[in-house]
Structures are given as C-alpha cells and as structure tokens.
Specification:
2 copies of one chain form a homodimer.
Chain A: H1 17-24, E1 29-32, H2 38-43, H3 45-62, E2 68-74, H4 97-114, E3 119-125, E4 127-129, H5 142-151, E5 157-158, E6 165-170, H6 171-183, E7 194-196, E8 200-203, H7 204-215, E9 223-224, H8 228-234, H9 243-247, H10 256-265
Parallel strand pairs in A: 1-2, 2-3, 3-7, 4-6, 5-9
Antiparallel strand pairs in A: 6-8
Helix pairs in contact in A: 3-4, 5-7, 7-10
Chain lengths: 267, 267
C-alpha cells in the first residue's frame, strides 16, 4: 500500500499533534479510521481515552471549515444484549469502553458540524472482512479466518454455532461507502449525524456455505465448536434496518455470494 | 452557606486536580454540579471542553469503587427544536456545546458505572428557580427574576409571551431529588443511566398567576414584551413524561402554587 504513488505515509502516534498535523496537512477530506480496537480498549481505559477519545477530539478541533471528516464509528455503540430489531431509531447503549468513546465522538462530531467548524459524517461500520490473517486477536477474527482457511483448503473450526448471526461487510464495500460519504452532498440536515451502514445479516451457516462454494470445498468440512463467550457476543445479531443510510446511497454487499466474491478477489 | 458547620469549602478550579482532590477527599457521595453554563460554553468551546468535559472525566477517573457520583446533567441534551412530546425514550440530540458535553459525560458515567468503577447516576435537571438575582445573565434568568421582582412589588416585563411553556423545578425540590439519588438503592440495571427528572410544565401565564397570587399582587401588573430569540428557546417546551424517574421515587414540585411557595420560602 505504501508503494502507491498517490499515497504519502505519515506513520506515528495519532495522539501526537505533530503526527496529526503531518497527516492532515492540506487535506480537504479526512477518513478517520485510527483507533484502539474494542478488546484492547476494554483492557486499557487510559489508552482508549488517549487514542479513541482525546486524539479524535484533537483531530476535530484542528480541522478547518473547508474540511470534510468521515469518521469511522461502529455498530458496537448499540451495546449488548441487542434489542430484537435494530434500526435508525434504536438508541445506542454502549457496553464497552470502545463503544462509549465511539459514541462520545459521534456526539462531538455532530456538534462541530452543527457549528460549521467542518463538514462531518460518522458511519457505523459492521464487521469488516477479511482482516489480514492474525492481524489482531480480536474475538471476531473467525469472520476473517474462515476466508483465509478455506481459500488454502485448510481445516476450519467455527467458534460459533451454525445459526449464530452477525452484521458483515467486505472491505471493498466498506471502502465504497467511505468514498461515497466523502462525496455525498451534505445538507445542513444531513451533516453531523451518525449513520448505521447497511450490512448483510448472515448466519455462520450461510457464510460457511458461500465461502465453501466460492473456494470449491465441501461446507461439511467446517466443524463447529461454539465457545460460550464468543457465542454471547456474536450469537444473535438481530435484523437490521438502515433506511436513512440507504436513502443517501450507502450500500451493503447485496448477497453472501457477492460479499465472498469481493473478499476473495482481494489479497 | 460557608458558615454551616457541616460544610468544608474547597474553592478553586475544578479542572485543577489538586482542587478536585481536596473537594473529594474522603467523600463517599459526590454531587457534581460544577459547570460552565450553556451561553458561556457556546461562546468558548475550549472552556467548556476543559470544565464540562475534561474535568468531569477526570473526576470520574479519580473516583473509587466505594463512591457514588450524582451527576447533574440537563434537559439541554434534548436539543432544539424539541419533538412534540418528550419521554424517557426520546433520543437526546444536543444542539449546544454545553449539551453535547453533558451528553458525552452521561455516556462516560454509564460506562464507568457498568464497569463497577463507582456507582453513578445522572439526573437531567430542568430550569431551576430561583437563581440569585443577577447571578448569571443567562437567557432563562427571567424565570428567576419574576420571583425577585414580584416579591419586592417591582414591575416585571416578561421576555416571552403568556402561552410560552417551559419545564421548571424549585431549588428545594431539586435538592430533594439530588439527595434521593444519593440514597437510592441502585441495582445493576439502574446504575449508570441518565434520568430525566419529573418537572412541572408551566406556561408563563400560569407562572405569573401563581407568583402574583403568592405575593398578593395583580397578575395584570406584569407586562409582556416577547423577545424573538428568548421565545425561540423558551417558547414551546412540549409535554414531558418521566415514568422511569417517577418509578424510582423522583418528584416534581406538584403544582405551580407548591413550586412558588417553596421558592418564596427561600431567600
């Protein structure tokens, strides 16, 4: 990625004002994806405060009126357990430090946008697949690992039962939505809000079937050894309705097969 | 107040850790009422960030597991314009820096409480009367000034029309509710939430009539010169339902006459 001639790397600690200054120099569109992921944040409040809250607020404070900030929030803001149905009117009830800080930044973003400090839009991302293998030992890693395993015809054991459901999106589809957010004409009414992105709701059995189909392996070769804790977190994502984002042109992958095709086309 | 032998004063900047340390030393119950009020916060983001957000988070971070924090939030979190009806399910949509910071602290408080860092409860206060005369030149000062004026049989001109409505509570009733919050058994389910307090919804005409009655003056002596901006903020507070707080034993003043009696009994 660093070799793409369109990219200028400014690697460093986002909590460092000099690093943020280098990264945002001359930028009229900022995709703010940096963050300490949920499991790590839950183990280290101070780190999450520094990165997920304070550095994000500092980034907002430094942005000028000509800037548009596309802020990556998360479906984690809805907390757990989830209600029987989630839509644009479901009140966020964060149940993780990570989620609380994401929600606090959504509110801050809306307030900066209200005051015209910059144009801002927050997108609540679902589970994004596939992350690089072994990139992060998060509880949701199995959603990526099934792609890595079946593509290599390796055995795979699911830590959730076949009927477990989750909200999921391919990296490609996620990028399309981020770019759409950057280009979208934002009316005063639409600027600032946190939008839950459309996502595919799949069961583990549906995901396994689609990945197996695409990789030409037998879905029956996947075994299941549900882990109670993983099952508790990824056992039952309810139906999700996102008319607000869809009306603005944001899209899910469409079908399980489309999602799998996009994921497998990327290395 | 400083002469009450039960009180120990620790005056200073709440953003100063040493001041917070002195104020909270040995405290098992903390009523956190300190803040930069809405009009001032709107004019000075950095001040609101420092006092209303950062100092509050620092206070939360320093509190021990044996502490209960009663945090004064505000009906300002609901934003403007308000929906036609507000209840415990109405989503807060802050439209002021002050309100955004209050809402962010509500979320932080709930997260600290969820983790058992301390017991926390946030109360959303309505307009509290009467503030000391000339204490703060806020837009809502007229709600206090009418008491000061009619008690002294001075003329009073209302900056809102007779049919303007607002949510209001006497200082006495507010204190009762704060103390109730400090003593309330908090289940795991009840800890952390932000509760909108029951409040009286009165029109200016109703308030004028009750204050005039109690002071023995003619309500017709009050004149009206509605100011469009004040009217826009205090013109139309809709009906308010707060079953969650009422079920937990929080109370409004009951009637306009009760509210006025309590206010006039205090100097």
């Amino acid at each position: 990625m660093a070799q793409d001639h369109r990219l200028r790397m400014a690697a460093g600690d986002i909590a460092d004002a000099a690093v943020r200054g280098r990264a945002m120099e001359g930028a009229d569109i900022v995709f703010h994806l940096a963050g300490v992921l949920s499991a790590f944040a839950e183990q280290d409040y101070a780190l999450s405060r520094r990165v997920n809250l304070d550095a994000t607020l500092a980034l907002f404070e430094a942005a000028g009126a000509g800037t548009r900030i596309v802020y990556a929030s998360s479906i984690a803001v809805f907390g757990a357990p989830l209600p029987a149905h989630v839509d644009d009117r479901t009140p966020p009830e964060p149940a993780l430090i990570y989620a609380a800080h994401k929600r606090m930044c959504e509110i801050a973003l809306a307030d900066f946008a209200r005051r015209g400090a910059f144009e801002g839009i927050a997108l609540r991302l679902p589970g994004i697949v596939a992350r690089p293998r072994g990139a992060a030992s998060t509880r949701s890693a199995f959603l990526s690992d099934i792609f890595h395993a079946l593509r290599r015809r390796e055995t795979f054991t699911s830590p959730v039962s076949p009927l477990s459901t989750f909200w999921i999106m391919s990296v490609e589809c996620c990028v399309d939505n981020l770019v759409h957010a950057a280009r979208l004409p934002l009316s005063a009414a639409a600027t600032g809000p946190a939008l839950t992105l459309p996502a595919l709701r799949l069961s583990m059995a549906e995901l396994v079937a689609a990945v197996a189909r695409a990789c030409g392996v037998d879905a029956a070769s996947v075994s299941y050894a549900p882990d109670p804790e993983t099952e508790a977190v990824f056992g039952g994502y309810p139906p999700l309705a996102t008319p607000l984002a869809e009306k603005l042109g944001f899209r899910s992958d469409g079908t399980a097969d489309d999602l799998v095709r996009r994921v497998l086309a990327t290395r």
